[in-house]
Specification:
The complex is a heterodimer of chains A (345) and B (309). Chain A is 32% helix and 22% strand. Chain A contains twelve helices and twelve strands. The radius of gyration of chain A is 21 Å and the shape is globular. Chain B has 309 residues and is an all-alpha fold. Chain B has two domains: 74 residues, no CATH class; 212 residues, Orthogonal Bundle (MetI-like fold), CATH 1.10.3720.10. Chain B is built from twelve helices and no strands. The longest helix of chain B has 36 residues. Chain B is flat and about 85 Å long. The chains are: A alpha/beta (345), B mainly alpha (309). Chains A and B meet through α2 and α4 of A and α8 and α9 of B.
Chain lengths: 345, 309
């Protein structure tokens, strides 16, 4: 795949700067009648071409809000971007005029959503919806756009693409709909693809197929993939690095291998411990105690402290910073060293 | 869709038999006074006249025979004559074109103004324009038609002299505009609110978010993705509205002295001229049923998720 756009500026060996897409200290809040909900509190991550970043977290952790802010599809109001930068190829998207930003959507950064049935327009044939990308961004004729749509539907392996071109979204199965969503998102060869829980609404066998497809498309076109999920099992095979989010912050950042081998944050450890394992058959499944934090009333200090088994006194007062623990891995825990070494708790 | 249409048309037969039977029964059989009692001024009508009329309109026949004769005549396209020996079909021909004109104008106003205001209002939700429109529509919704009618007639027709206070014979389009506004006002307000609600609801829909994420210009997101989806309930409402308005507008026709089907029906009921009431009522039933069928078919055209077989 050839790129029509300039290659990302790379700045050598520093791991989190000069990347294709950089989110830096992003802060997003929702102003509701009940109060101000701090959905994203200083999130920083980056992704490079050919790289897959998995953003892991439970509902309300801010992972989707961050993605929507990157895309510029956050509902504003009630959403407000309080601070931070989102640099794509070194240019800040947040200060860019809307007209320019619009051109980046679909061309530079694309997104697929969890529920393809509601994310596709029910009133237009799928071929029309895929072709719309070419008609609007590339000025292709209707006929040319339909031809491109067939190519894409073949590429995401929809059987009998030509015959199904004029079918409507409701006439497809869940997995096929997600393939159409993917076809639409990769239509213009974007450099970054954000997949927001792409397999959550699908059954397990179809989940694997969709993940394989995404991984394959990424290899072919060398795009960066941001995979947002709450499912640890989904990310293990495809992701290169993982950012674990909790209460609107990144609590741990590491390569997939490191993270699975030895978590450096109590929350990650809890998540890994709660994966069912064959050798524990018949025993009670581990669960992280307590409930996710209320974004309107965040706990003082470390947001995770009410549920943390490693909790000490300063956890309730001091917010831990996301600090390097070892090599490229970072953790936002006062006692990350002990967690990593398995000493405390 | 063709088979569905045919099936729906066939379903009209039992409905029409039932409704015409009920109309005939209620009009001719239920005690409503002698239809010939008041036809001769202050004096009672001569026996001979009553007898002749009773004979002519077959009122001595048993009811089932009367109904059967009526059905046979209607199916042959013969609507009969009224008590003054004027063919009913001529009365309808005189009145119905005006009603159709008035109904089309009113629906056009409801569609253009209602959808227009509703879309802007919905897109600028919570703003000054939206609030003004909400107050305006509430005002219109709370005004009875006769108040709007008489007020506009008095201001525009009598005080300012911009329009004729009453519509002249032949009902030219230009003179029907103000009556159509009066007739449309209530449901125009309703259309505005329906459109606004629909726009606001769909604006947060996932596919609108997708359209933005596709990098489409705002006017395309709104004009194609949002509007098509929001139009479905509005268009179906306007479809039923055509059916309702084709049934005539008694109050508006009365105020502006328009000779439409509503006035014809109302006058005939007042004169107890049942020979007119029955065929006109039948016609209105047919029109309403066809309009409903049209709306159902339209719904299928607008929304591919609805398929008839």
């Amino acid at each position: 795949m050839t790129k029509a756009v300039t290659e990302p500026v790379s700045s050598g060996d520093r791991p989190y700067s000069g990347s294709l897409l950089e989110v830096e200290d992003l802060q997003v809040e929702f102003r509701t009648q009940a109060g101000v909900a701090k959905a994203v509190n200083g999130v920083t991550y980056s992704v490079d071409a050919g790289e897959t970043l998995a953003v892991l977290g439970e509902s309300g952790s801010g992972k989707s809000v961050t993605a929507q802010t990157i895309m510029g599809i956050l509902d504003m109001p009630p959403g407000v971007v309080r601070g931070g930068r989102i640099r794509f190829r070194g240019v800040d998207l947040l200060t860019m005029p809307e007209a320019e930003r619009r051109k980046i959507r679909g061309e530079g950064i694309s997104m697929i959503f969890q529920d393809a049935l509601s994310a596709l327009n029910p009133l237009f044939p799928v071929g029309w919806q895929i072709g719309e990308m070419f008609r609007v961004h590339r000025g292709l004729s209707k006929k040319q756009a339909y031809a491109k749509a067939v190519e894409l539907m073949d590429r995401v392996r929809i059987p009998a693409a030509k015959q199904r071109l004029r079918d409507f979204p409701h006439q497809f199965s869940g997995g096929m709909r997600q393939r159409i969503m993917i076809a639409m998102a990769i239509a213009l060869d974007p450099e970054v693809l954000i997949a927001d829980e792409p397999t959550t609404a699908l059954d397990v066998t179809v989940q694997a197929q969709i993940m394989d497809l995404l991984a394959e498309l990424q290899r072919e076109s060398n795009m960066a993939l941001i995979l947002i999920t709450h499912d640890l099992g989904v990310v293990a095979d495809v992701a290169h690095k993982i950012a674990v989010m909790y209460g609107g912050r990144i609590v741990e950042q590491a390569s997939v291998f490191d993270l699975y081998a030895k978590p450096a944050h109590p929350y990650t450890k809890g998540l890994l411990d709660s994966i069912p394992r064959v050798d524990q058959k018949g025993q009670d499944l581990f669960a992280i105690k307590g409930i996710p934090p209320n974004l309107l009333h965040m706990p003082s200090g470390c947001a995770f402290h009410p549920r943390c088994v490693f909790k000490r006194d300063n956890c309730t007062t001091d917010v831990p910073a996301l600090l390097t623990v070892e090599g490229p891995r970072r953790s936002a825990c006062h006692y990350s060293r002990e967690v990593l070494d398995g000493v405390a708790g | 869709m063709g088979r569905y249409t045919i099936r729906r048309l066939l379903q009209l037969i039992p409905v029409l038999l039932g409704t015409t039977f009920l109309i005939n029964f209620m009009v001719w059989q239920l005690p409503g006074g002698n239809p010939f009692a008041n036809r001769c001024g202050d004096r009672p009508c001569p026996e001979a006249f009553v007898a002749a009329m009773t004979e002519q309109f077959g009122l001595n026949d048993p009811f089932w025979l009367q109904y059967l004769k009526y059905l046979t005549n209607v199916l042959q396209g013969n609507l009969g004559v009224n008590f003054n020996q004027v063919p009913v079909i001529d009365l309808i021909k005189l009145a119905y074109p005006t009603t159709i004109k008035l109904a089309l104008l009113a629906v056009a106003i409801e569609a253009v103004v209602g959808i227009g205001l509703g879309v802007i209002s919905g897109l600028k939700k919570g703003g000054f324009f939206d609030s003004s429109i909400t107050i305006f529509t509430l005002f219109l919704l709370s005004l009875p038609v006769f108040v709007t009618g008489f007020t506009l007639q008095w201001i525009l027709g009598i005080q300012l002299g911009i329009i004729n206070p009453t519509v002249s014979a032949g009902a030219p389009w230009s003179e029907l505009i103000v009556p159509a506004i009066v007739l449309a006002s209530l449901n125009m307000a309703f259309t505005t609110r329906l459109t606004r609600t629909s726009i606001v609801e769909n604006f947060r829909a996932d596919y609108v978010r997708t359209a933005v994420a596709k990098g489409l210009p705002r006017r395309r997101v709104v004009g194609i993705h949002l509007l098509r989806n929001s139009a479905i309930p509005v268009v179906t409402f306007l479809g039923t509205e055509i059916g309702a308005l084709m049934g005539g507008a008694i109050v508006t026709e009365g105020i502006f002295n328009i000779t439409g089907i509503g006035g014809l029906l109302f006058g005939s009921i007042g004169r107890r001229d049942y020979t007119v009431v029955v065929p006109v009522a039948t016609l209105l039933v047919v029109v309403y049923l066809l309009a409903n069928l049209l709306v159902d078919l339209l719904y299928g055209v607008l929304d591919p998720r609805i398929r008839y077989e």
